[in-house]
Design a protein that fits this description.
The structure is a homodimer of 319-residue chains.
Chain A (H helix, E strand, L loop, with lengths): L4 H11 L8 E2 L2 H7 L2 E6 L9 H10 L3 H6 L1 E4 L3 H12 L4 E6 L4 H9 L3 E5 L3 H15 L2 E2 L6 H7 L1 H10 L4 E5 L4 H13 L4 E7 L4 H8 L21 H10 L2 E5 L4 H12 L5 H4 L3 H5 L8 E6 L7 H6 L5
Parallel strand pairs in A: 2-10, 3-4, 3-6, 4-5, 7-8, 7-10, 8-9
Antiparallel strand pairs in A: 1-2
Amino acid sequence: MTPSGHDVLRARERIADLIHRTPALTCSTLDRMTGASVVFKCENFQKTGSFKFRGACNAVASLEPEERSRGVLTHSSGNYAQALALAAQIHHVLAYVVMPETAPDVKVQATAGYGAQITLCPPTHQGRHDTAERIRKEAGAVFLDSHDDPRVFTGQGTACLELIEEVGELDLILAPVGGGGLISGTLLVAKHLIPGVRVIGCEPTGADDAARGLARGERIVDFTPTTIADGLRTPLGENTFEIIRQRIDDLIVIPEDEILPAMQFIWERMKIVIEPSSAVAVAPLLSGALETKGQRIGVILSGGNVDLSAFFRSLNIPH
Amino acid sequence: MTPSGHDVLRARERIADLIHRTPALTCSTLDRMTGASVVFKCENFQKTGSFKFRGACNAVASLEPEERSRGVLTHSSGNYAQALALAAQIHHVLAYVVMPETAPDVKVQATAGYGAQITLCPPTHQGRHDTAERIRKEAGAVFLDSHDDPRVFTGQGTACLELIEEVGELDLILAPVGGGGLISGTLLVAKHLIPGVRVIGCEPTGADDAARGLARGERIVDFTPTTIADGLRTPLGENTFEIIRQRIDDLIVIPEDEILPAMQFIWERMKIVIEPSSAVAVAPLLSGALETKGQRIGVILSGGNVDLSAFFRSLNIPH
């Protein structure tokens, strides 16, 4: 059965008490620059630092008792690993997380810290798949894909649902596109609640598989991402490709050299830490790529997990 | 007449419509670590990026019409320059700001961007004083000290006032100590509203003039600060020294090597950008220097103006 906006509403019932209802913030400088009224949904303040926790939480909460007893399983190098680990921990479910050997130690530690059982694997698609498949067979755990499982992406749509509840009518919603989970959940709920709203997905040139796939009419899975936006290196899934194909108003491809300036703008002006993937949905507001004048615009800031250790090492202590 | 908590309440009436009512945020990880319930008053989200705007705004709003027509004047290398410039702009008052030649260009530009008339001067106490004195005589402008003017520090106390209104009873309030304006305003209003509350000032070893001055019984003005907390390099003023001497419960001196780790902790865990001066009031919660168990603790995060350009230059764009 095709997921709908109703599934996002149901997901919210399931997870409302478990997630942070993140703030919606504005930036008067940006409003002046764009002539628009822009509201940012701040999933960088979400538990585990990204929107991924919403989907993971809804997926685990949706399991049957028998499934819970078998545990949950995924592979992830990033935010979803921590998100699923914490969602499982909250529900007293065992989590198996396959992570590439190249994953930053801090992410492995954080995931383990939520009680997940980590298995390291070769840093390839095949390596991740084979290792997860082995664990699935051995432990019988339920595999929960990071973006293409409907329980996951309808949960992720709850960020946009909260945004619309808080600010009301919007003319335009921007969200980044990686595996397509966030934009799919956003599309389902936004078009359900505001029939006339335009939803535009933003992806970087270094991982523009969604734009190329839509133009070609088929999903592109075989590509090597080269983007700094590490959360957006995943290809679309089968479900998310279909939802995007049917419902999206437009996809904007963001030049790589616009990502860090957009990220710096938000850090400096709004004093919040966002990750490069979030900045991809901010960039078109700064570059003039969009007609913004007089528009009410919502932007989903996907997360704030950035490795800050090099920066803090570089700051000198006087003596 | 000695300023009191009532003056902070009156300041709030004056500036409530002009300032941001900044959020009070919590951090569950920190609460677990400390066994306390800690609330952060986030002045990094204040206009111009720091609490300084509150004091500047109250000072300009307090001027007589005749004084307004003469303009306002100060010297500052940092946050107060921008704060007074914007406060004056909002009130349609001319601002003269003396800045040392060594001030970062970005701060000079930001101050000029608020319409202030900038005069660069030699980067010494004497150079700043002499240049400001010359302008005062020539233009007749009203000098507004960054921390020792009662109109300034009672305005700065409104941050703590809002915090107490929002969270209610507190056992302990922590704030950084530089020129003493923030802690003085905080002391006035906190002791007025919560007679039993303890207020502790935090200053870095590299600028521990308040702790040494209190121990000696006289204000120390002749010292060379060596702290990374650039907002705390100012000596106490005559008024702020007196208020602190009479009312403070304790001063904690924070080792320099605890400042950046505390700052990194807040960036990583709370996803907000705070400056080193703010981190000085966070450090004692992480180091175990304070008995925190079971306490309701308020922390004033003074600002979020950090030069991020080197960090963003260091992030590589893949190609």
